[in-house]
């Protein structure tokens, strides 16, 4: 039930069912294409149980789940309802770059499981043959090898499905159109030389190609929409696919197929040119920046390059080898943190994330450990770069599109070069050892925030009054995860009975939001206090608020800071609950006094804060 609740909250915080255009998932993330990305509340999404993080990147709202992504995807699908196909209503204008990137990711991302599964099967077969456990001449081996190669051979058909789904056109007709490219009889005719309408058709082998299929489906989508719009309804069921196929297939054979083939070759050659001229430097640099690329989801645009490289060369020598260095460095850094940290919760998280990264899934490590701690992130970068240098110099090649990790190491099996796998394992070991060692030396435990006087020297203590009169409640009762989970810090909340905000202590005003719904001050003891009037009241754009102070103004306890129209805020549909939070919580112990005050609407001390010293 918990995962179902989380799924409901995710749908709510991405803007609701009506704001979702498409939804797919990868190995660790839910990927939403939204009609209006401004409606997505990333802070609230991050606060949902089971969510490791959330970003808007690559034309998608990406919700990082980790190993439970399939279960969460199913739960979200359940919330959206059976047969959900997205809301294709009017969408805000997006840059061409965002549209293209969203389309590319939407086409290539779903291909990964099939390609990875088949590739690993072929790699394991080669490994079995290398050890002499099965002859590569046996019929069993050959049949199994063909099974493993099927996804790559049938890549044009797989692309036809994903492209058609992305463009919301009939996938079966799209497969039929693209299937023409790999028909055995067509291939035979092209090899002998053939013409269509007197025009010579270029002899191209389209099996394992992706760009010809993409161009073909793009044309088919335009044809389907055109003929659907203008054909009579009684004959639409056969007339639309007939005319679409009649136009699309010949044009693909004559023009789009050869063009797509050239584009694919050029795309691969550009990457190979950079890799050839930069050599190991390219691998090391890519490995070093992968933590940031993965964190923002910008590593996904590398998939088309990898797929195109596999289809033309059967191997890849840059992105996947660099990913090996990065993935294992994440694991090494996490295990170092687990060994050095005194925080039991962080230790548990680091162990779990380290194991996950060891097997090729890095998001739990990134979002749970390394991105939150600069020293851990530095350890990852050091391990990635050093491992990437070795991997680049060794010239390691990958033969399967899958996240490098212990279980997927057969992806580096090369029948013609048995040392390729050995070198990959050496790179694995170097990346882990360097990041682990760097983590042990660089890690520094943060000051404990235990509130006992035996463990901390209390330098300064202070009492903070309630900022408004009303019913004082625990912060955990605020119906907003950002506050209730203490993401901004510790404090209290007040259900106000009067629209006046007072200074809880002597200090100085540090900040006033333009929308006037929030302001911050620093007390004379150094505590940084945030006042937030209402939930989502930022949408009022300052209406009903009147600030009485200015930034850098000195104030005394009890001074009036701001007034707000309590009744008008309620009538506008907003919850006026007001929060007072100590945001520099690592420097202070914060104890709330809310017992026996719930029904007392007098302003009185509600927080005891004490500055922590070593």
From TrEMBL:
Domain PTS EIIB type-1 stretches: 4-86
Keywords (A to Z) from UniProt: Cell membrane, Kinase, Membrane, Phosphotransferase system, Sugar transport, Transferase, Transmembrane, Transmembrane helix, Transport
InterPro entries in the cross-refs: Dup_hybrid_motif, Glu_permease_IIB, PTrfase_EIIB_Cys, PTS_EIIA_1_perm, PTS_EIIC, PTS_EIIC_1, PTS_IIABC_b_glu, PTS_IIB_1
Membrane topology according to the record: Multi-pass membrane protein
Domain PTS EIIC type-1 stretches: 102-454
GO molecular function terms attached to this record: kinase activity; protein-N(PI)-phosphohistidine-sugar phosphotransferase activity; protein-phosphocysteine-trehalose phosphotransferase system transporter activity
Location of this chain's protein in the cell: Cell membrane
Main location: membrane
Active-site residues from the entry: 26
Transmembrane parts of this sequence: 111-134, 140-160, 172-191, 197-223, 235-257, 277-296, 379-401, 421-443
GO biological process, one term: phosphoenolpyruvate-dependent sugar phosphotransferase system
SUPFAM superfamilies: Duplicated hybrid motif, Glucose permease domain IIB
Keyword Glycosyltransferase: no
PTS EIIA type-1 domain mapped to chain residues: 480-584
GO cellular component: plasma membrane
Domain of life from the UniProt record: Bacteria
Protein name (database record): PTS beta-glucoside transporter subunit IIBCA
